[in-house]
Amino acid sequence: MSDRRTREGGMTLVEVLVATAILAIAMVAALVLYDAARKSFKRGENATEQQQAVRIAFDKLNADLRMAGFNYNPDGAVGRPDEQIEAAYDTAIVLRADFDAEDPAASGTPEDALAGGAYLTVSTGNDEIVAYVLAKPDGSSTDTLTFQADVSESKRDGDVETVTIPNVALVQNDPPYTLYRITLNNDPATWGTGAFVVRTPLVDNVRSLTFRYYNPLGGAVNGTFDLSSVADDIGGSDAAGPKAQRESVRRIEVALVGLTREPDLGWADSADSNPKTRAYRKFELRGDVTPRNLGMVGIRDLSADITPPTKPGAPTLSPGHCGGLYVSWPPNPSADQVVSYRVNYGTSPGSHPNSRSTASTSYYLGGLATGTTYYVAIQASDAGGNLSPESDERSATVTNTTTPKQPQGLQATANLNGAVQTTWTAVTENTSNVPGDPASPMIRDLVGYRVYRGPAADFTPGPTNRIADESKITASSSPLYTDATAVNCRDYFYKVTAADACGVESAPSASAAGRAESAVLPKPPANVQAFVAGPNRARITWQAVTEDVDGNAITVDTYVVFRSPRVATGTDPYGLTYSPIATVVGATEYVDAGAGLAVPGTTIWYRVKARDDCPNISEFSNPAEPVCAFSGTVSITSPSNGAQVAGVVPTTVEVLGGSDTYVKATFQFYNNATGKLEEEKEVAGPGPAWTYNWLADPPGAYTITAIVENDTGCRRSAEVQVNAGSDVGCCLSPHPVQNPYVMACTGDPGATRKCKKVTYSMINNNCLTAVRLDEIRVTWTNAIGNNAKLLSVRFDGTSIWNPNGVTSPASTAFSPPNPTIPVDRSASNPLTVDYVYDQLMSDKAGPAVKKNVPITTTYTFTLLDADDNPSAIKGACGPADGFNFTVEDP
Fold first, then answer.
1. Which pLDDT tens digit goes with each residue over 69-97?
2. Are strands 757-764 and 831-837 parallel, antiparallel or unpaired?
3. Partners of 684 in beta bridges
């Protein structure tokens, strides 16, 4: 039995621990392998998904490229400005094609409505002008894609407008981007608005999109292919050069580079220098598209009229209207069957890049620059779209010789919303004719009206009483302006003038009286606040009242300010009796100079009411108690808290982020050991920073407090703790700084050998106060062998020490009155120091022998306070501080 129990033993504790550790290691290894597999799968899944998205977008782009130019000019109309490629950039393209030709409904909408102007057939709407370009999805891209196309009229007139597509990336230096397919709005009413450009995002996380264009011979049309600039791109201008380049394109190479959605943190693309995209995997899709329709145009009906009209007669140009010319010309013969004329114009002789269309033989050419000379020629167009040669050119300078007539019939009536509504008869004529304009004195350049308001019928209109101008009241057949700034029940008088495009103003109309009526109370003033504005003064502010209690917009410019009696702090302000103290007109603040002497434990309250002239008086505002308002944070910027300082300490306080008017700062220096205020200094000035040079005397621990006060008497303070030492170190210096400093041999008058007196300059460069010399020690060597003895030390020629012949080293401790070095002994006013010896300190008399004596000096000194009394702050300067000299005989 005993033997069996001995053989039946289980696992020991050590064996259990070993087995557990092995199991844990195995589990960790399995988890690491699982995590690596999971990450690898996720990377692959993301890459596959994004690659598929880019592929779909690329296929759509290529499909549209293959359609470029399809059926864009089905009848071969001559002079049609529509292009197969409207714009060609290195990083963007704009193309045109009849994409909806197979759709019976869409193919005629809006194309049928666009036909019948300059062209009998129109096959492409604005939505079939397609641009491909990259851009940031948040609209932060800064480039603009521009091209010219005939897009803004309900019937195509053959004139081109400049289309701008803003916020795109033509220089692709900040990926990733989104690829957009952009079309234009078919509704001409959206022209000039943000709704005219319709953006459709195709795919995100795109690095770049590029195009290269080739002619029929395989040569690159945009040969430079500079992606850092758009200046050398073909672009979208309808000028002859760029347009001919686009017409020569037969093959387009396109490349689209996509990025994975997430970076691969363990990988870097060595071919990518952009740190934003180096860690992203990339996939490039490249295509070489030869659109079969490029260079092709519809064939004109062989039986159609292909004979252009004859050359029109030269135009007559009649200036006189602001910004325009009246243009007239003789009609073409009836046999030409002219249906319209083109007025071609420009600012250079022989160049007419701009065009307008009309069915008449006269046209008012507006929108020109006054003072500029324009050159005009006429072309005739028949029903077949044939264009005649241009007429002979004529030129004229745009001038303004007219003044609008005085407006008539001004009326001013109250409307239901507490405002005055003014109406008058539209101005249709000028005060004089424009020679050559048969419609004169009809006004062609009216832009709007100006409304003036005054307190009496005979007021004089001027900029100070103008309440509206042509930016608000444009030319209209039924002009109207509602004065919503009229105070209810107040009589006003109004006058109106007409203004043309040059700002020429008519005589004012007769005045009309009007007043707004209302029985509805204004809302109480909101956000009433009161601030301490100085001793016994309070400043009360509030928001202007702009609505009545029914929520209608009104104007109120009169307010009544009320004040409570002085009461104990904590008294309920709503139960107090308030008395009116001021009526304020045209302002939303009031300074109460009679607030009374402040008594601890007491306060006063203010409330405000709004009032119109009816009078409708609002209820009380909420009460406001004066508070001491101080904006900004006060901070002692130097010295820092806990700093070790000594001597004169520049102490600076600053207000950060404030907008008050600050008047002064007060510095207080408390000795922590004694609890004594050692010094207090007020520094006046507007701030926001003030500095005071504090002599930290006596040494010890200090609390520095700085108090800043604004113009209302409110204060904020800051404090730091510093430890002031008794040793300021060296704050004197030889000037200029040299090491060693070369002393000059100056000599006394009449001396034959100059080097018995040697000289240097010294400044008080960093003490920030005057210093008293306590001791001087001068040391020199016997380099020449003449055992020179020091006779005298002089400051600015005056002896401060006369040892009368001592050998090195020589020193003395000064007794009162000690020599001093004032704080103004700066680089512009240095102190001259002379050492006088009985022997030469430099000798070069012997043949090829030059011996110079080195000299060192040590000063010990005491800082003086503002009253020139010695402090407990000491300092010392010696050879290590630059007082290390050598003598040189010139």
1. 999 888 887 778 899 999 999 999 999 99
2. antiparallel
3. 664
